[in-house]
Amino acid sequence: MATDEGWLPALAGGIRLQFEQAQDSWVLLYPEGMARLNPSAAEILKRCDGSLSVKEITAELEIAFSTSNIEDEVQQLTQAAKQRGWLV
Amino acid sequence: MQATKAKTTPHTRDRVTPPFWVLAELTYQCPLHCAFCSNPVNLDAIKTELDTASWKDVLKQARALGAVQLGFSGGEPLQRDDLEELVAYAHGLGFYTNLITSGVGFNEARAKALKAAGLDHVQLSFQDSTPELNDFLSHTRTFDLKQRVAKLIKAQGWPMVINVVLHRHNLDHVATIIDMALELDAQYLELANTQYYGWAWKNRQALMPTRAQLVRAEAVVNDYRARIGQRCQLIFVVPDYFEGRPKPCMNGWGNVFLAIAPDGLAMPCHAARDLPGLELPNVRTSAISAIWYESAAFNAYRGEHWMAEPCRSCDERHHDFGGCRCQAWLMTGQAEQADPVCSKSPHHEKVTEVINRTTTGLVEQPLLFRQNPKSAQKRPVN
User: Fold this and answer.
1) Interatomic CA distance for residues B139 and B165, integer angstroms
2) Which of A1, B121, B201, B287 matches a 20 to 30 Å C-alpha distance to B194?
């Protein structure tokens, strides 16, 4: 898989991440549409603020959720979100 | 219509989901005179607009129900001088706010004020890719202005959707339309084949393209898609007359979409005003939750209970919902009929006749340009 070593993922312009009571979940909002996020996608995207690399996001999540070996998952999700224009 | 991009959770009979998309048609006033406008033809009959406080109340109620996406539309929403105030209020409620505009009335000062108010996205319409055709089709000199507006939108960092309504007179220009969108650096280009309601219904034969035009245009779009990749997303809104199957109109009646007209009428689809026998509720007299969950109008074609054959036993009914009620009514006189664009409809020949006339014995019909309301009152001063 392609890896961007120096990439500090951030939400693209016009993309908003917020919690929706009616959906009982975090959602990504973009022009005229919405994607409902599962809890792990939400935790990853919440950390995409342009200050952390994928490795750093992974490390944070592994500590916060007492888990390990999730870098592939973080890598896949951020790449997919980049493909869709949600992350830059 | 944009609701096709909304969430596509299918409606089930026992669970009515909250509205997702609210379309706030702030005014029917519009400086343009487009021949394909889907606003009602009898604009003169629609008088007083909702005032600022009433709109705020409507937005607050809709948001409390769970609505997320909000479109400010019209007419031309920039005709309202309280647009910035309403955007700020909606943003504060947590709506994702979309401005759907012709660009007329947009300038640097308003762009900055709308940005400060929290506007999330702007959709700008063009009628064609050259000043001559844009200005002919909108019956106004607006092309140069729209080019300037596109630059103002980009300067504020908004994602920009350019929308062009396609028909017989501009389908052959799709390549130059795409070039224009690329030059203006739009993130999305919506190539929306005309939907035949309102003024467009009156001009139906004059606007209807030939099948050959559509095939050529779609090939051009696919060719560009392969070449430009992610740079600009090309959305080709399918012309249902030529498809043989209906569009899942509004993603189902009363399922995700709630339109509020300038006079406060609440509609499950922005063309529903004309449907006979449908008593549309008004936000001046009913609460949004009562309108959405309980009103006869929003329940009339919700789910599948209303369907007649061939829809009732059709295995495609769960995803196309029998198509469009307004189109069924316009062509068959009965809203509960299958949408006649469906080849299974017993009225489908009404559609094929119109398509056949595009190539045989067509008498060129002059375009009838939209007349704007003469007697419509401005909204009352708060």
Assistant:
1) 14
2) B121
Classify B68 as helix, strand or coil.
Answer: coil
Contacts of B94 in chain A (CB under 8 A): 18
Q: What is the pLDDT of residues B309-319, one digit of tens each?
A: 999 999 999 99
User: Token pair of B221, please?
Assistant: 């779009």
Residues A16, B120: C-beta atoms closer than 8 Å:
yes
For the segment B112-124, what is each residue's pLDDT rounded down to a tens digit? 999 999 999 999 9
Question: How many other CB atoms are found less than 10 A from the CB of residue B302?
Answer: 19
Mutate: best of A32, A79, A83, partner B, most B CBs <10 A = A32
Name the residue of chain B whose CA is nearest to A84's CA: B230
Single-letter amino acid code for the residue at B151: K
Q: How far apart are CA B70 and CA B62, in angstroms?
A: 10
Percent of chain B with pLDDT over 90: 73
CB spacing of B157 vs A85 below 8 angstroms: no
> In angstroms, rounded to a whole number, what is the distance separating the alpha carbons of residues B21 and B4?
10
Phi, psi of A58 (to 5 degrees): -55, -45
- Given CB atoms, is A24 within the 8 Å cutoff of chain B? no
* 8 A C-beta contact, residue B301 and residue B268: yes
| Torsion angles phi and psi, residue A17, rounded to 5 | -115, 125
What is the ipTM score, two decimals? Answer: 0.88
Which residue type is seen at B90? A
Q: Is the peptide bond before B239 cis (omega within 30 degrees of 0)?
A: no
Q: Please write the tens of the pLDDT for every residue from A18-60.
A: 999 988 999 999 988 899 999 999 999 999 999 999 999 999 9
> Hey, are the CB atoms on A34 and B158 less than 8 Å from each other?
no
Give residue-wise pLDDT tens across range B69-108: 999 998 899 999 999 999 999 999 999 999 999 999 999 9
Number of other CB atoms surrounding residue A33 within 10 Å: 19
What residues contact B308, with CB distance under 8 A and at least 6 apart? B336, B337, B338
Distance CA B207, CA B223 (A): 25
In this prediction, residue B45 carries a pLDDT of 66
Give the residues across from B71 on adjacent strands.
B23, B98
Nearest residue of chain A to residue B6 (CA atoms): A33
Residues 6+ apart with CB under 8 A from B336: B301, B306, B307, B308, B325, B328
Closest by Cβ to A34, choosing from B7, B71, B123: B7
Do residue A34 and residue B6 have CB atoms under 8 angstroms apart? yes
The angle subtended at Cα B87 by Cα B153 and Cα B230, nearest 5°, is 40
List of chain B residues whose C-beta atoms are within 8 Å of the C-beta of residue A36 = 7
Evaluate whether B323 touches B269 at the Cβ level (below 8 Å): no
